[in-house]
Amino acid sequence: MIELEKQGNVFTLTMNAGENRWNTTFVREIAKALDEVEASSGPAALITRSANEKFFSNGLDLDWVQAPDDHPEGGDRMVFGNEFMGLMGRIITLPVPTICAINGHAFGAGFMTALCHDVRIQRIDRGFVCANEMQLGMAIPLPELALFRHKLPANVFYETVQLARRWTGEDALGAGIVQHAVDLDKILPLAEKLAEELAPLAANREVFGGQKEKLFGKGAILNAEHGAAHLLKNADKYRG
Question: What is the distance between the alpha carbons of residues 228 and 85, in angstroms, rounded to a whole number?
Fold first, then answer.
């Protein structure tokens, strides 16, 4: 389901669960991988990718959400919301540089995951990133809105969350959603190159992670009250 490898200073987390749909079991497996990353010391960077060339992540495990008793492999439905949001808050403030290799579609929770990374590389020839909650008739929770607002320019934010625009790699690059858009066979080599270049920034984890907290955490400088990471980690308090 989740594979974590390390070569030199670079960790590579590979999601290997088909369409990589999100349920509690999936959240907890990724959390275990992050435990290993955070237990390391010295220079490091993390690449997150998918083994599926068509899907980076196709969002929530809707079959499990709608009938959790029929899909016990997905884990406890009641704790999913807080654990998922908390994991997103953890990724956005991870004390090492993070690179997301978006090699296929990234919808909903998959798009959130990508945005929580420091650097995003999207496949240019096919695949979309999209917050598709409006298409599904679902309201976007405040912590998720905060994440999109922090990471996206204002006009791009509105098109993304309110109009459910699907962004191709080329369009996402132009809109500032991703920093790079390249062919499929170039995504991982570019991610590895960037990871090696950025890994030294994590030599002092306290400083690198601490500044992320200032950007995205409680009382964040980019937000009037609290930042996306604080809202994500305390999602049960922000339901409106």
Answer: 10
